[in-house]
Specification:
Blueprint lengths: L5 H4 L2 H19 L7 H28 L8 H28 L25 H6 L6 H6 L3 H22 L3 H21 L2 H16 L2 H32 L6 H15 L2 H16 L3 H14 L2 H17 L6 H16 L8 H11 L7 H6 L1 H26 L5 H4 L16 H10 L1
Helix pairs in contact: 2-9, 3-7, 3-8, 3-9, 3-16, 4-10, 4-13, 4-14, 4-15, 4-18, 10-14, 10-18, 11-12, 11-18, 12-13, 12-18, 12-20, 13-18, 13-20, 14-15, 14-16, 14-18
Keywords: Cell membrane, Membrane, Transmembrane, Transmembrane helix, Transport
Organism: Gordonia paraffinivorans
Protein name: Glutamate-aspartate carrier protein
Length: about 425
Amino acid sequence: MTRPNPKVLKHPAVQIGIGAIAGLVFGLIVGEWAANLEFVGDIFIRLIQMSIVPLVLSSVIVATASMSGAGTGRIVVRTFTWMIGFSVVAAVLAWALCTLIKPGTGMVFDGTLDPTLTEDAAETTGWQDTLRDFVSTNVVEAMSTATMVPIIVLALLFGVALRMQITKSGDDRVLTFVDQIQQIVLTMIRLVMHIAPVGVFCLLAPLSGDVGFSVVTTALKYLGTTALGVAILFVLFVVVVTARTRLNPWRLPGKLTEQTAIAVTTTSSAVTFPTVLKNTVEKIGVSQKVANFTLSIGLTMGSYGAVLNYMIVVMFLAQAGGVDLTIGMIALGMALAILLNMGTITVPGGFPVVATFLATSLDLPLEAVGLLIAVDWFTGIFRTFLNVNGDTFVAMLVANADDEIDRDVYYERKAVVSEEIDVAEYADAIASADAAD
């Protein structure tokens, strides 16, 4: 009889999965009594919520103020154009699929938002009012109510101004100070995540005790919607790449097999990055110059699976809580999903922080967040699969425009060797990639 590997049991995702399954089973067995545990789950969510405002504020300032303006030219423009374009497509596709499939409608509960966290968002406003509310007259009040968009606007402006001041004076002490705040908040989140298995157990037990077995079918609909969206986007990538490059698409699966296997087994774009860079040069034929730039940018900006998943989270929480999203709220949800993908809003605390951030930003109920956390390992597989292979596809599109694809390499008539990479050089991008996965 084989014994379970103790290292596997120590993995946070495994522990959260065990806590989630135990919570679901416990709630189904004891029924409504499980509601007595809800306060523990609420504490777990609040511990994450209290870190979101300082994390977003410091992360956006650091990300914006750190941009030095290096790297110009056609490769840069084409890389960003393709990445942002596919990110927009991913967000729109997620909205369309959720509108058709309605993954969150199987779960109905009478949950209300924490009144100490957000204002009531029942009033419907026009798009002009929505845009006007992006700028707050009292940022302190916005912080106290976790109204995220005005906070992001402030941080973006502050970051741009700080970048200008650093360029003018050469003094980066303020940036260093803000970066230290960011690191401290991230340490706080890591500490909170140690109790995630208990928190998820106490979130799901009351939920399954109240809703019953439909909580399981709801989770399957959420996973099914995500998987379908990933499949559609992957096919779209292949169609666009084939149309633009005129390369034989039937050769692609064999060239992507190795990096796909690593991606789905590790659920980490960062771990897969060296293999992606090597294969993109040696098997696809993309030039080293284009591959180095495009794939390194793709680590932080090319998380198309993440954009798709984040928008599905928005729609799922709204449908589960019976919230009718206005056009302005849907557009804001898409914008936030894309900003998260672009690395402008850095939330390396993982999916629980992302889901809570999105719910808080759009005034959506938080009760179903625990269910999403419970199945995040599976969605992580879908996200990483698309993130990793999407980066290779974008590199092909960028390289094709400047005739930087060696077709002899693609058709295996010629062999090239990729340069060895210094992993430390990509440390920041790798950290952001892990967050998106």
